[in-house]
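Hi R.,

Here's the chain you asked about this morning:
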Amino acid sequence: MKNAQVPAARPVPPDLTLAVIAKEPLPGRVKTRLCPPCTPAQAAGLARAALHDTLATLAALPARRRVLALDGRPGPWLPPGFDVIPQVPGTLDVRLAAVFGACEGPVLLLGMDTPQIDAAALAPVLAPHAFAHHEAWLGPASDGGFWALGLAAPSALPVPRAALLRGVPMSRPDTGALQRARLHAAGLRTGTLPTLTDVDTAPDALSVAALAPHSRFAAAVGALPQGLLTSCTTTGSHP
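And here is the predicted structure, written out as tokens:
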């Protein structure tokens, strides 16, 4: 799918920051669950394409600020307009919390595993009063995790934003449910974004490429040797 364009003049939530947390797409460091059937270099190519699509989509959407929390160094896949900040050491919940801590105002945080995102998927949280009616937004992933988390400004929350993330077990089939329970326990009104598939396995890659046939990710999948991804039929569990 082509990266959806949203007119820059469209009203957005005050001070909205769009943030992405990602690893530099280097062989052996990303998409390791695709190996086999992919080589580390092929898996890194898919990760690079997914990250490019994700950042390009967010670059076309209205926001007061765009942030990339990066483990590694920027590359040619980074479009203009993003502030790059380093990820802090620690587990994923700690690193996610740190991204929110580095941003003021409401924040929508995404990963690099959903290159099929478009303006329609994010429309509810981009609405002018998105954070007037909800203090949190959660985008469920089909594997039980979540692909997006939006939190209102610290002044609108009853607890620090870090307390809404730290200690939530990550990379589990119940991570999304546990994160939602944490938000509800804090009394937050939580909106729900569409359920999307994270690209973790070969079947995931084929499914997402079919959903976004004009994306760079789909082109990268199509450039792989014929039948490579279809040769893998096991999905395993989320790392």
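One quick note: Residues 129 and 232 are 44 Å apart (CA to CA).

Cheers,
M.
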